[in-house]
Amino acid sequence: MENIKKNTRRKFLNNSLKVGIATAIGGIGLTKLVSKLNAKTANGSSEKIELMTTDGTLIQVDSSEVIPVEKTPSKYNSREGFANRKFVMVVDLAKCKNALKCQQACNKGHYITGDNAWLKVYKMQEDNDTAPYWMPTQCQHCDQPACVTVCPVDATFKRRDGIVLIDNERCIGCRFCMAACPYSTRVFNWSKPDQGEITLGVEYTPDYCGKPSVVGTVDKCDFCPHQIVKEELPFCVNACPNGVFYFGDKYEDTVTNGDETLRLSELLRKKDGYRLMEDLGTQPSVYYLPPVDRLVDFEKGLDNYNEFQSVAKPE
Amino acid sequence: MKNTDTLLIDLAPSKFGKKGVLWTSFLIVVIIIGAIAYVEELIEGQITTNMRDYALWGIYISNFVFFVATSFVGSVTVAVLRLTHNSWRTPIVRIAEIICVASIIMAGITIMIDMGRPDRLFYLFIYGRLQSPIIWDVIIIPTFMIVSILLLFFPLIPDFALLKEYFKEKKPTLSKWYGLLSLNWSGSKRQKKIQTKSIKIVAFMILPVGLILQTVDAWLFSTTYRVGWDSTNFAPYFITGAFVAGIGALVVVIFVVRKVYKLENYITNLHFDKLGKLLGLACLTYFYFNINEYLIPEFTAKKDEAAHLSLLFSGEYAPLFWLVLIGGLVIPIIIMFFKKGRKPLPMFIIGLVVVISSWWKRYLIVTPTLLHPFLPIQGVPESWHHYFPSLGEWLVTFATLAMALLIITLLIRYLPIIPIQRTADEQELLNSEKNSKS
């Protein structure tokens, strides 16, 4: 009850804030536009083009007034993350055949040398009577991350763009975050990582996990901010031959698997999206689409399945 | 005055005998071996342990919980017996305080051993965030340590003054040390008043601080989602468990000290009888919380809970589970009901069983839960599905236990194990009562 109240109040605050900002911006925009238009009529300029406002009404603007929005890259800080973004992932279980290309790409891209991959494809079956399915999991980048709450030194942190990262130069190796995470996605560097020369002399940054890995600290899926910076998709998304993974921005309401770009809200609504262990209240950023109408038999994936060792190490 | 003289002869610290030297060197050897194992771990990383990503905590943590639990003896014997005006406590409180100090020091050291990056220990102080239960531990453990050391120290002050005089000719350097520690104690009325007040304050403090310590320790586990830890029962469960472990340790140490130093006149059958009753009470309350912890989840048998409990009741951990529960809890309860069972020797044996069971009990609290995550354990080597400590972990753990015993041994060697001044005062009081009657 308390919670609901709080939430509605928060929502109200949030909404009113948005409305306020919108009107402010709108107001400024309008006055500018009007003054410009006046100026234009005075100048008696030529072409008009039609534009659609956010509420769907068409307006005409002088073509000389249309300036493309300049992308000013806001100062990026690996602790704070990207401004005005909220990264999400959608995993379509109906398409997963346990090809494990995602895992291989992730292992390779992050120089994983341990026995435990960050991205795992679980062989799942809820009950004897229900169908088995393949379920890729990685860090869920929860909005209420249990790992961040229990970290004593702020080594693992939540960014404004939704990504949960680890500062391996801060981590004291108490492993409390691993105990707290219900998704078992965290991996510890029990020995000195044998990453070879590839990570030598690389300047450490929390947003490229595994480059390099640090002994006695925790690693996990970083949602590939190092790829996002380059305007590329995370390793797993690019590598999947079946288009299982969709990556995108919740604020833009779009996700893409590289082949198709979809509306997030629509996709989740239409295909009954859900999140893992919703009842724990962790609020993951990774959504799952149930394994329905599958094109390929579950058994096909068994060829790649190895119960004891699923980490295919890079050569 | 004559009274204290005879007491001093009986109770003043004396040199180790042959056995004492042998015992101490044995402990030192165990510590050195453990230190070597730990250095190897520091060099290689914790790969030398058998902990892995699923069994991410092992005996280092259960050993830590054991030390924390044992330190509770200070709160129980000193504060509880004091508050309830149990005057029989006099000859055993100092030993209880010594165990308490040794355990809490070792708890602090053990938790550091578990860290993957002990070199970053000071990060806890410069980057600490109050929301993490580990920081609660970082606050409460030193607090408890200070209070327990003061609780040991304040009542010792008059004894230090006595010892300073006693050793003046025999051992001048030792006498000097005692003199330094006695803080110029002269036994004046004013000093006595300050001392009584100080003792009162720390004795009252040790109870809430001890309770918080045990509670925080339990919260380290119950603030996670894990099946078997995510329990509202956990804090009282840990407190009562600590009650058992502490009294068990006290009984064992008292028996040994009494035997070695021939203190049969001071620590009598009455003390063992009383301690037996206390141990019985402790075991009964702990048993009650065990029922809450295991039987009620079994009744509703949620899928994860059922899997966890079957691992304990009939699975891999069943032999250990039942041994610890029956041997370390049920049998002591039954034996403590009989007067014969509360005699020194049976008490010693039961105490030993209780302490060992308490140690394994913590192992059973930490390990099985970690091997039951929410998602199945897949994609890792077979050995990661199980956990049993590696040789290195055992050596390090034995070293910590030996270190605790060494601290106890050394404190017993240099401190009067039974409060001299206090015993003298009490005897005087008794005598004067007798005299007034006759």
Radius of gyration of chain B: 23 Å
Q: What is the straight-line distance between the termini of chain B?
A: 22 Å
What is the C-level CATH assignment of chain B? Mainly Alpha
For the record, the count of structural domains of chain A works out to 2
Number of helices of chain B: 17
Which class do the helix and strand fractions of chain A yield? Answer: alpha+beta
SSE class of chain B: mainly alpha
Task: Compile the SSE list and pairings.
The complex is a heterodimer of chains A (about 325) and B (about 450).
Chain A: H1 2-43, E1 48-52, E2 58-62, E3 87-92, H2 101-109, E4 120-124, E5 133-137, H3 146-150, E6 156-158, E7 164-166, H4 176-180, E8 187-188, E9 218-219, H5 225-228, H6 235-239, E10 245-249, E11 254-256, E12 261-263, H7 264-270, E13 286-289
Parallel strand pairs in A: 3-13
Antiparallel strand pairs in A: 1-2, 3-10, 4-5, 6-7, 8-9, 10-11, 11-12
Chain B: H1 2-11, H2 18-44, H3 59-70, H4 72-83, H5 90-113, H6 123-126, H7 133-153, H8 157-166, H9 172-181, H10 189-222, H11 234-260, H12 269-300, H13 303-313, H14 318-336, H15 344-370, H16 391-414, H17 420-437
Helix pairs in contact in B: 1-17, 2-16, 3-5, 3-11, 3-15, 4-5, 4-10, 4-11, 5-7, 5-11, 5-16, 7-10, 8-9, 10-11, 11-12, 11-15, 12-14, 13-14, 14-15
Report on this model:
- The complex is a heterodimer of chains A (315) and B (438).
- Chain A is an alpha+beta fold and 315 residues long.
- Chain A has two domains: 2-65; 87-304, Alpha-Beta Plaits (2-Layer Sandwich).
- Chain A is built from seven helices and 13 strands.
- Chain A has helices spanning 2-43, 101-109, 146-150, 176-180, 225-228, 235-239, 264-270, and strands at 48-52, 58-62, 87-92, 120-124, 133-137, 156-158, 164-166, 187-188, 218-219, 245-249, 254-256, 261-263, 286-289.
- In chain A, a hairpin with a 5-residue loop joins strand 1 and strand 2 (58-62).
- The radius of gyration of chain A is 23 Å and the shape is globular.
- The termini of chain A are far apart.
- With 438 residues, chain B is mainly alpha-helical.
- Chain B has a single domain (14-421), classed as Up-down Bundle (Formate dehydrogenase/DMSO reductase fold), CATH 1.20.1630.10.
- Helices cover 74% and strands 0% of the residues of chain B.
- Chain B has helices spanning 2-11, 18-44, 59-70, 72-83, 90-113, 123-126, 133-153, 157-166, 172-181, 189-222, 234-260, 269-300, 303-313, 318-336, 344-370, 391-414, 420-437.
- In chain B, helix 7 runs antiparallel to helix 10 (189-222).
